[in-house]
Structures are given as C-alpha cells and as structure tokens.
Design goal:
Number of helices: 11
Structural class: mainly alpha
Shape: globular
Largest sheet: 2 strands, antiparallel
Radius of gyration: 20 Å
Strand order of the largest sheet: 1-2
Number of strands: 2
Distance between the termini: 30 Å
Strand content: under 5%
Order of helices and strands: HHEEHHHHHHHHH
Number of domains: 1
Length: 291
C-alpha cells in the first residue's frame, strides 16, 4: 500500500510538468479534431468528439488530478481562448465535467497492465462526461423553456435526441478514440514514461477495491461539482456569462488560423518533453557521480 501512495507524492516540478504536458497534448489534439470533417448518415452524425485517450492515458500513468485539470484547461486555452471563442461561465461546465470524468477514470485503474481494467476505466470516463453533458442539455430545456406543454412532445424529443447523441459519442468516439487507443498505449507505456519525471511506475501488486475508491467524500464532491456545472451552463444561457471572448478568429481569418493554435500547443509539448528528458539525464549524471 505504501508503494502506491509514494507514487502520488509528487514534487512541485513534477506536478507542474504533468499538468503542462497534459494541457499542451490535449490542446493540440483538440485542435486537430476541428480539422476532421463530420459524416452524416441520415439523422445520425458521426464526428470525432475528442481524442480522449490522451488525457485518459496520462491520468492512468501519472497523477489523475493534475492530468485531468491540465487537459481541461488545455481545451479552454487552445480550443476557446486562442480562437476567440471563450464563452465565460459556459466553459466552466465543460471544464468541471471533463476534469471530473477523467479524474474518476484515472482512479479506477489499479494495474496499468490489465487491459480489461484500463478499458473499463476509459469507457467509464467517456460515459460520465457525456452523461453530465446530456443532463445539462436536457435540464436547459426542461427548466429553461417555459410552458413545455405549448409544444407537444418537445420535452420527450429532447430526451430522445440527447440519448441518441450520448450513444453516438460513447459508442463511436468513446470506442475508437478512447477505449481502443488507451488499451493499446497504457500497458506499453507503463514503466517507460514515468522515469522521465523521476517517478516510480505503479506497483501492480497493490489492489484497491471499488468501495475504497468511491468514498463518500468523492461521491458528494462529484454531485456538487456536477451541480455547479449545470448552474454555470444555465447562467451562461441566461446571458450572465460574466466574461466572454468572442472575437472568433476562425470566422474572421478562416480555418487556417487553427494551425496557429496547433503550432503553439506543439511547441509547448516539445519543450516540456525536452525538459523532462534533460532533468532525467541530469539526475542520472548526479547519481553516477555520487556513486
């Protein structure tokens, strides 16, 4: 038990590197998804919602909290602010929902080499995120639209539309761009990338049960954060976003402007990786001299 706890005792520099690496890599992937065209098959739209395997992999291999928050902030910075599309309180809902889903997914894995466990955590993380988003969208209609009875079947149609969207995102993006890549990457990267941060790989002899992970504090915190996310989205829809950034550079300059955000995220990622490698070499050199 002490070995696993020791793994999460990170230095401030390690926390910062996990945070920035997750932020830049997921921000980079988020920009790439903007360039992928959508496919319409009748009433069903197939689109790449996100490359969730990136934050999922980092949350499982490293500290789930810093990796989850970093990924969510990366989406806000590179996908919203840098493109001039920041929606104020509306972005808080996305931030909380995605951070919460990725954090829970990361804590569900005890053995990174266990593909079944990794796969269950990956699809659970996507399902939690999409469920919160669907609940917020349904709530906006049920609570925000007055006199639903004036339009027969409106409430029921919203539930059906959100249900289909939920299944599409979980079964399409969740399987192709979260479940399968995460199951492939995590066992192969386990034990190879952790030393870059000077961290020991997770001891897979240690086991946690689901009851130990889902503590009352985590359950209550999850409910509170989900409620805050819903309230934030409601306030944003009521024109109470407080802070907005609506320059919309893509609309002004065209889709090529996305490449600016991609370039910035790529440079930050490379700098962080280079710094991690350098620190590892420095620590190895110091240990050799000390020996």
């Amino acid at each position: 038990m002490s070995l696993l706890k020791k793994r999460y005792m990170l230095t401030q520099s390690q926390k910062m590197m996990v945070f920035i690496l997750s932020m830049s890599l997921y921000g980079l992937s988020n920009m790439i998804t903007e360039l992928i065209p959508k496919v319409q098959l009748g009433p069903i739209e197939l689109s790449v919602e996100y490359f969730a395997f990136i934050p999922l992999t980092l949350c499982i291999l490293f500290h789930p909290l810093y990796a989850a928050i970093g990924a969510s902030l990366g989406e806000v910075i590179f996908g919203e602010i840098m493109l001039g599309q920041f929606g104020g309180l509306g972005e808080l809902e996305k931030f909380i929902a995605f951070s919460l889903a990725m954090f829970i997914a990361g804590t569900l894995v005890n053995d990174p080499k266990n593909k079944r466990q990794v796969g269950m955590a990956a699809i659970t993380g996507v399902a939690i995120h999409q469920m919160i988003s669907a609940m917020v969208d349904i709530g906006k209609v049920w609570i925000g639209v007055e006199e639903l009875e004036a339009v027969p079947g409106l409430a029921e149609s919203i539930v059906i539309i959100e249900g289909v969207s939920f299944l599409n995102d979980v079964l399409f993006s969740g399987v192709l761009f979260a479940l399968l890549p995460t199951m492939y990457l995590v066992p192969r990267l386990y034990g190879k990338v952790e030393p870059l941060l000077g961290m020991k790989p997770r001891d897979n002899t240690v086991r946690y049960s689901l009851t130990e992970i889902m503590t009352p504090r985590l359950i209550v915190g999850t409910i509170i954060l989900a409620f805050i996310a819903m309230i934030s989205e409601f306030l944003a829809e009521a024109d109470m976003a407080l802070i907005e950034w609506d320059a919309d550079f893509v609309e002004v300059y065209g889709d090529w402007f996305i490449w600016v955000s991609i370039a910035v995220a790529a440079v930050i990622s490379m700098l962080v990786i280079a710094l991690m490698i350098r620190k590892r070499k420095d620590s190895e050199s110091e240990s050799r001299h000390a020996g």
